[in-house]
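User: Quick sanity check before I run a bigger batch. Here is a single chain. Can you write out its predicted 3D structure?
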Amino acid sequence: MSERHTSDPTPALRLLWGERPEPRRGPRRGLDLDRIVAAAVELADEEGERGLSMRGVASRLGIGTASLYTYVPSRTELTALMLDAVIAESPLPEDLPGTWRERVEAWARHDWRMFRSRPWTLRLIERPLLGPSLLAWYESALRVLSENGLSPVENASVIESVDAYVQGVARLTADQEESHAGNAEPWAARHRAYIAERVDFSAHPLWTEAALSGAIAGPADHFESGLRFLLDGVEADVRRRAERRD
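Assistant: Done. Predicted structure follows.
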Protein backbone atom coordinates (compact mmCIF):
# COMPACT_ATOMS: atom_id res chain seq x y z
CA MET A 1 0.00 0.00 0.00
CA SER A 2 1.81 3.11 -1.21
CA GLU A 3 1.94 6.42 0.61
CA ARG A 4 -0.50 9.07 -0.55
CA HIS A 5 0.20 12.63 0.49
CA THR A 6 -2.79 14.87 1.13
CA SER A 7 -2.89 18.61 0.56
CA ASP A 8 -3.82 19.26 4.20
CA PRO A 9 -1.49 18.03 6.97
CA THR A 10 -3.74 19.41 9.74
CA PRO A 11 -5.49 16.13 10.70
CA ALA A 12 -2.14 14.38 11.17
CA LEU A 13 -0.69 17.34 13.07
CA ARG A 14 -3.66 17.34 15.43
CA LEU A 15 -3.03 13.73 16.33
CA LEU A 16 0.71 14.29 16.66
CA TRP A 17 0.19 17.16 19.07
CA GLY A 18 -2.30 15.37 21.26
CA GLU A 19 -5.65 16.51 19.91
CA ARG A 20 -8.03 13.58 19.96
CA PRO A 21 -11.30 13.38 18.05
CA GLU A 22 -14.47 13.50 20.09
CA PRO A 23 -15.68 9.96 20.80
CA ARG A 24 -18.64 8.89 18.75
CA ARG A 25 -21.78 7.53 20.29
CA GLY A 26 -21.77 3.82 20.80
CA PRO A 27 -19.71 1.30 22.77
CA ARG A 28 -16.76 2.59 24.75
CA ARG A 29 -13.57 2.44 22.73
CA GLY A 30 -11.00 0.06 24.15
CA LEU A 31 -7.84 1.13 22.31
CA ASP A 32 -5.50 4.09 22.44
CA LEU A 33 -3.22 5.57 19.81
CA ASP A 34 -0.06 4.26 21.46
CA ARG A 35 -1.23 0.65 21.04
CA ILE A 36 -2.29 1.29 17.47
CA VAL A 37 1.02 2.89 16.55
CA ALA A 38 3.00 0.12 18.26
CA ALA A 39 1.06 -2.49 16.28
CA ALA A 40 1.67 -0.61 13.04
CA VAL A 41 5.42 -0.36 13.73
CA GLU A 42 5.57 -4.09 14.49
CA LEU A 43 3.76 -4.85 11.24
CA ALA A 44 6.13 -2.63 9.23
CA ASP A 45 9.16 -4.22 10.93
CA GLU A 46 7.92 -7.67 9.90
CA GLU A 47 6.52 -7.01 6.43
CA GLY A 48 8.08 -3.75 5.30
CA GLU A 49 6.44 -0.65 3.90
CA ARG A 50 4.59 -2.61 1.23
CA GLY A 51 2.99 -4.83 3.85
CA LEU A 52 1.70 -1.92 5.90
CA SER A 53 -2.04 -1.40 5.55
CA MET A 54 -4.93 -0.25 7.69
CA ARG A 55 -6.47 -3.70 7.32
CA GLY A 56 -3.27 -5.39 8.47
CA VAL A 57 -2.97 -3.14 11.52
CA ALA A 58 -6.62 -3.71 12.41
CA SER A 59 -6.17 -7.48 12.11
CA ARG A 60 -3.15 -7.38 14.39
CA LEU A 61 -5.20 -5.49 16.97
CA GLY A 62 -8.14 -7.85 16.65
CA ILE A 63 -10.59 -5.21 15.46
CA GLY A 64 -12.33 -4.40 12.22
CA THR A 65 -10.82 -1.97 9.74
CA ALA A 66 -13.82 0.33 10.13
CA SER A 67 -13.17 0.50 13.88
CA LEU A 68 -9.55 1.47 13.27
CA TYR A 69 -10.67 4.44 11.19
CA THR A 70 -12.49 5.85 14.23
CA TYR A 71 -9.07 6.31 15.84
CA VAL A 72 -6.94 7.21 12.82
CA PRO A 73 -8.61 8.77 9.75
CA SER A 74 -6.19 7.33 7.18
CA ARG A 75 -2.81 5.79 6.54
CA THR A 76 -1.33 9.29 6.19
CA GLU A 77 -2.07 10.09 9.82
CA LEU A 78 -0.96 6.64 10.94
CA THR A 79 2.44 6.86 9.27
CA ALA A 80 3.01 10.33 10.73
CA LEU A 81 2.43 8.89 14.20
CA MET A 82 4.67 5.92 13.42
CA LEU A 83 7.57 8.13 12.37
CA ASP A 84 7.25 10.28 15.47
CA ALA A 85 7.26 7.14 17.62
CA VAL A 86 10.42 5.84 15.94
CA ILE A 87 12.15 9.22 16.38
CA ALA A 88 11.19 9.13 20.07
CA GLU A 89 13.25 5.93 20.41
CA SER A 90 16.41 7.75 19.29
CA PRO A 91 18.69 9.25 21.94
CA LEU A 92 18.72 13.03 22.04
CA PRO A 93 22.02 14.35 20.63
CA GLU A 94 22.81 16.29 23.81
CA ASP A 95 22.58 13.05 25.83
CA LEU A 96 25.39 11.49 23.80
CA PRO A 97 28.99 11.73 25.06
CA GLY A 98 31.86 13.62 23.49
CA THR A 99 32.52 16.78 21.51
CA TRP A 100 30.01 18.28 19.12
CA ARG A 101 31.58 16.34 16.25
CA GLU A 102 31.58 13.04 18.14
CA ARG A 103 27.92 13.55 18.95
CA VAL A 104 27.08 14.25 15.32
CA GLU A 105 28.94 11.09 14.31
CA ALA A 106 27.05 9.12 16.96
CA TRP A 107 23.63 10.30 15.86
CA ALA A 108 24.50 9.78 12.18
CA ARG A 109 25.56 6.19 12.91
CA HIS A 110 22.44 5.60 14.97
CA ASP A 111 20.26 6.83 12.11
CA TRP A 112 22.24 4.72 9.63
CA ARG A 113 21.66 1.58 11.69
CA MET A 114 17.99 2.46 12.10
CA PHE A 115 17.47 2.95 8.36
CA ARG A 116 19.34 -0.28 7.63
CA SER A 117 17.23 -2.28 10.08
CA ARG A 118 14.00 -0.43 9.28
CA PRO A 119 14.18 0.58 5.60
CA TRP A 120 10.45 1.31 5.63
CA THR A 121 11.18 4.48 7.59
CA LEU A 122 12.97 5.91 4.55
CA ARG A 123 9.63 6.31 2.79
CA LEU A 124 8.00 7.89 5.81
CA ILE A 125 10.74 10.45 6.34
CA GLU A 126 10.61 11.83 2.79
CA ARG A 127 8.03 14.39 3.89
CA PRO A 128 8.04 14.47 7.70
CA LEU A 129 5.60 16.47 9.78
CA LEU A 130 6.89 18.50 12.71
CA GLY A 131 5.74 16.39 15.62
CA PRO A 132 6.84 16.56 19.27
CA SER A 133 9.63 14.00 18.95
CA LEU A 134 11.14 15.54 15.82
CA LEU A 135 11.03 19.04 17.32
CA ALA A 136 12.65 17.87 20.57
CA TRP A 137 15.37 16.03 18.64
CA TYR A 138 16.09 19.01 16.37
CA GLU A 139 16.30 21.43 19.30
CA SER A 140 18.72 19.08 21.04
CA ALA A 141 20.87 18.80 17.90
CA LEU A 142 21.05 22.59 17.62
CA ARG A 143 22.14 22.83 21.25
CA VAL A 144 24.96 20.34 20.58
CA LEU A 145 26.12 22.23 17.50
CA SER A 146 25.99 25.59 19.30
CA GLU A 147 29.37 24.56 20.76
CA ASN A 148 31.04 24.99 17.37
CA GLY A 149 30.55 28.76 17.08
CA LEU A 150 28.34 28.72 13.99
CA SER A 151 24.97 30.47 13.95
CA PRO A 152 21.71 28.53 14.48
CA VAL A 153 20.89 28.99 10.79
CA GLU A 154 24.27 27.59 9.74
CA ASN A 155 23.97 24.71 12.17
CA ALA A 156 20.52 23.92 10.80
CA SER A 157 22.27 23.54 7.44
CA VAL A 158 24.77 21.17 9.05
CA ILE A 159 21.90 19.05 10.41
CA GLU A 160 20.12 19.00 7.06
CA SER A 161 23.35 18.09 5.25
CA VAL A 162 24.12 15.21 7.61
CA ASP A 163 20.54 13.95 7.47
CA ALA A 164 20.46 14.17 3.67
CA TYR A 165 23.73 12.25 3.46
CA VAL A 166 22.65 9.49 5.85
CA GLN A 167 19.25 9.09 4.23
CA GLY A 168 20.70 9.21 0.73
CA VAL A 169 23.25 6.46 1.31
CA ALA A 170 20.71 4.35 3.21
CA ARG A 171 18.10 4.77 0.48
CA LEU A 172 20.57 3.88 -2.29
CA THR A 173 21.70 0.80 -0.37
CA ALA A 174 18.13 -0.29 0.35
CA ASP A 175 17.13 0.17 -3.30
CA GLN A 176 20.09 -1.90 -4.49
CA GLU A 177 19.34 -4.68 -2.03
CA GLU A 178 15.66 -4.70 -2.96
CA SER A 179 16.44 -4.87 -6.68
CA HIS A 180 18.69 -7.90 -6.10
CA ALA A 181 16.51 -9.56 -3.46
CA GLY A 182 16.68 -13.34 -3.77
CA ASN A 183 19.37 -13.35 -6.47
CA ALA A 184 22.19 -11.26 -5.03
CA GLU A 185 24.86 -13.96 -5.21
CA PRO A 186 24.07 -15.22 -8.74
CA TRP A 187 23.83 -11.63 -9.97
CA ALA A 188 27.19 -10.70 -8.44
CA ALA A 189 28.87 -13.84 -9.78
CA ARG A 190 27.68 -13.24 -13.35
CA HIS A 191 28.61 -9.58 -13.10
CA ARG A 192 32.16 -10.42 -12.01
CA ALA A 193 32.54 -13.13 -14.65
CA TYR A 194 31.51 -10.89 -17.53
CA ILE A 195 33.63 -7.93 -16.41
CA ALA A 196 36.70 -10.12 -15.85
CA GLU A 197 36.38 -11.58 -19.34
CA ARG A 198 35.57 -8.47 -21.36
CA VAL A 199 37.05 -5.39 -19.66
CA ASP A 200 40.65 -4.25 -20.18
CA PHE A 201 41.53 -2.78 -16.80
CA SER A 202 44.90 -1.52 -18.03
CA ALA A 203 42.99 1.38 -19.58
CA HIS A 204 41.56 2.27 -16.16
CA PRO A 205 44.54 2.25 -13.78
CA LEU A 206 43.06 4.60 -11.18
CA TRP A 207 39.86 2.59 -10.83
CA THR A 208 41.91 -0.61 -10.60
CA GLU A 209 44.14 0.82 -7.89
CA ALA A 210 41.11 1.94 -5.88
CA ALA A 211 39.41 -1.44 -6.24
CA LEU A 212 42.50 -3.43 -5.29
CA SER A 213 43.14 -1.22 -2.26
CA GLY A 214 39.65 -1.91 -0.96
CA ALA A 215 38.33 1.61 -1.58
CA ILE A 216 35.47 0.22 -3.62
CA ALA A 217 33.94 -1.58 -0.67
CA GLY A 218 30.60 -2.21 0.98
CA PRO A 219 27.96 0.30 2.04
CA ALA A 220 29.16 0.58 5.64
CA ASP A 221 32.67 1.55 4.48
CA HIS A 222 31.29 4.10 2.04
CA PHE A 223 29.08 5.52 4.76
CA GLU A 224 31.95 6.04 7.21
CA SER A 225 34.21 7.61 4.58
CA GLY A 226 31.55 10.01 3.36
CA LEU A 227 30.58 11.02 6.89
CA ARG A 228 34.21 11.76 7.70
CA PHE A 229 34.65 13.91 4.57
CA LEU A 230 31.46 15.82 5.34
CA LEU A 231 32.33 16.58 8.95
CA ASP A 232 35.96 17.35 8.08
CA GLY A 233 34.59 20.15 5.92
CA VAL A 234 32.39 21.51 8.69
CA GLU A 235 35.23 21.30 11.20
CA ALA A 236 37.64 23.06 8.83
CA ASP A 237 35.15 25.91 8.39
CA VAL A 238 34.74 26.18 12.17
CA ARG A 239 38.54 26.39 12.59
CA ARG A 240 38.91 29.06 9.91
CA ARG A 241 36.30 31.23 11.57
CA ALA A 242 37.92 30.80 14.98
CA GLU A 243 41.30 31.81 13.54
CA ARG A 244 39.81 34.94 11.97
CA ARG A 245 38.22 35.93 15.28
CA ASP A 246 41.57 35.51 17.06
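The domain at 11-85 is CATH 1.10.10.60 (Arc Repressor Mutant, subunit A).

User: Great, the batch can go ahead then.
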